[in-house]
Amino acid sequence: MHNKTLVELSQQLASGALSSVELTQHFLDRIKLLDPQLNSFISTTDELALAQAKIADELRAAGSAGPLTGIPIAHKDIFCTKGVKTTAGSKMLDNFISPYDATVVEKLNAAGTITLGKTNMDEFAMGSSNETSFYGAVKNPWNTDYVPGGSSGGSAACVAARLAPAATGTDTGGSIRQPASLCGITGLKPTYGSISRWGMIAFASSLDQAGPMTQTAEDAALMMNAMSGFDSKDSTSINKEAPDYTSELNNSLEGLKVGLPKEFFKEGLDSGVQQVIETAIKDIEKLGATVKEISLSTTDLAVPAYYVIAPAEASSNLSRFDGVRYGYRCDNPANLEDLYKRSRGEGFGEEVQRRILIGAYALSAGFYDAYYIKAQKIRRLIKNDFDKAFADVDVIMGPTAPSAGFALGEKADDPISMYLSDIYTIAVNLAGLPAMSVPAGFTAGLPVGLQMIGSHFSEPRLLNIAHQFQQATDWHKKTPDAFTK
Amino acid sequence: MALDKSEVEKIAHLARIAINEDKIPEYASSLSSILGLVEQMQSTNTDDIEPMAHPLDATQRLRDDAVTESNQRDAYQKIAPATEDGLYLVPKVID
Predict the structure, then answer these.
(1) What is the DSSP string of A438-476?
(2) Domains plus CATH for chain A?
(3) Residue A272 in contact with partner chain B when CB distance is under 8 A
(4) Mean pLDDT across the stretch A374-383?
């Protein structure tokens, strides 16, 4: 039951072979049994899930079920869920019971999905390994000595271990795609503004974007149909009718023009990963695509510009955590300043503090032009680079991450080497583009993701390419034996 | 770009974060190496390039000045660290 895709489960629910209550109980039991080895959930919502499942079964009996009615999923613990603890992986919010639902949660609830629980993540989504979580690191189900990637590491690990058929994630610099690659699942970061940010705890507002984490591209399309759309509560939501993300899945790839940026295949890329990606691209060629080398000459500038823009926005966004209205408050504050300083000093972990400090520095008097404005100018150069590439090719492909993964603790004390693990994903956020990571093979027993980057609003085409690739390969069906037998 | 102890203390004050004295050298070193990474931007000429704040160059949307929310003070204050008579409590600011 747990190795089935959303589409397959949806069919079984529709035929009456399975009830949502049975399905939900099955996944809750699996989480209880197996998650102690992974730590992919911060909390499970058993009672809520079974109550939602009962309602879903009643709706189905009454003839008003949609494709996602009764399907259990997990939410990254960055999405506010009414009446449920919502922590963003931080001690700061360990006592925070959200008084409302994020738009993403509200929309998926309306589509009939069941909430199994809230998944573990790097604190405030700041990390690439899930090791900065206040609730402890998540382990990679393919090798529990390895990180699952981050920041949506809990969502990636639970889908890979089939503890949930699908999960929500967020991606500010690669936080959906990199863990999807490291855990061997499908992840989509949509065009900036496609999915509402309302109720999604903010990290860097001009980069943050929610998206689905699933077994297949077809499942991601179904999730997108429920998650996306204009929301007046998000000031940067795109006021444009959302497409049917499943509409192009079955199109042919004949004539597709693929660009391979030479900067993605130079020094720093693991040779095992390179081999997997080259083979995957040959498979795409066999489906009718033509491939050419392109150049994204600003590739090396993306990480430096990101580590000004994202921390600057974070230092502003995270100023709301002051120990006054909600969240952690220090004991016995001597005065108001002491209350602010110690609540934030004790409530935030080290990586979060580091990024707030970098941001505060970059925005401080005398440094604003040299850092923040400079980074915004580089951001435009990066976007121009992509625009130029898309005048010539339909999709850009390459590795999602420079290696198939790293061991727990390996990079925990070296922020720079951790930051560089997002070298192929970060530019996409700066340019606001949609991109996917799709399972493409293995090296040294660990999964490798193929990244596909499209122009703005090209998600239906990206999902089409990914779906056709998944019709021709079976990497997305491979599961870690220890968890899925 | 290397930050010294007093600069770290100054930024920590700006950000209202209390940092233990013994952690400051570690922060000075990791923040300096991040600034070193960021410094790579300076080698690129960006004269006449317009700074980009939004990936789709969108502007702020305006809405009608109308009431859309109902009062939920009690629900929101239930999760506050300290409240009294509908007010959030903080240490005394004015004597």
Answers:
(1) EEEEEETTEEEEEEEE-STT-HHHHHHHHHHHHHH--GG
(2) 6-256+392-484 (3.90.1300.10)
(3) no
(4) 97
* Per-residue pLDDT at B57 exceeds 80: no
ipTM of the complex: 0.96
The residues that bridge with A290 in the sheet, in sequence order, are: A257
Residues 55-84, chain B, touching A (beta carbon < 8 A): 55-56, 58, 60-61, 63, 72, 75-76, 78-82
Interchain contact A96–B (C-beta under 8 A): yes
- Evaluated on CA atoms A244, A245, A251, A257, the torsion sign reads positive
Does residue A196 have a cis peptide bond before it, meaning omega lies within 30 degrees of 0?
A: no
Q: What is the mean pLDDT of residues A73-85?
A: 98
- How confident is the model at residue B53, as a pLDDT? 87
Closest CA to A153 of A436, A443, A408: A408
| Sequence letter at residue A359 | G
Does B1 reach chain A within 8 Å, measured CB to CB? Answer: no
Closest residue of chain A to B17, computed from CA coordinates: A341
Closest by alpha carbon to A149, among A159, A139, A134?
Answer: A139
Question: Searching chain B, which residue's CA lies closest to the CA of residue A431?
Answer: B55
How many angstroms separate the CA of residue B73 from the nearest CA in chain A? 11
What's the topology of domain B5-42? Histone, subunit A (1.10.20)
Residues across chain B:
95
CA distance A298 to chain B (A): 9
Q: Give the residue on B whose Cα is nearest the Cα of A233.
A: B63
Task: Name chain B contacts of A359, Cβ cutoff 8 Å.
Answer: 15
Q: Which of A10, A19, A40, A76 is catalytic?
A: A76
List, for residues A224-240, the tens digit of each pLDDT value: 999 999 999 999 999 99
Rg (CA), chain B: 22
The helix-helix angle for A299-317 and A374-390 (nearest 10°) equals 130
Distance CA A75, CA A113 (A): 11
Other C-beta atoms closer than 10 Å to the C-beta of A85 total 16
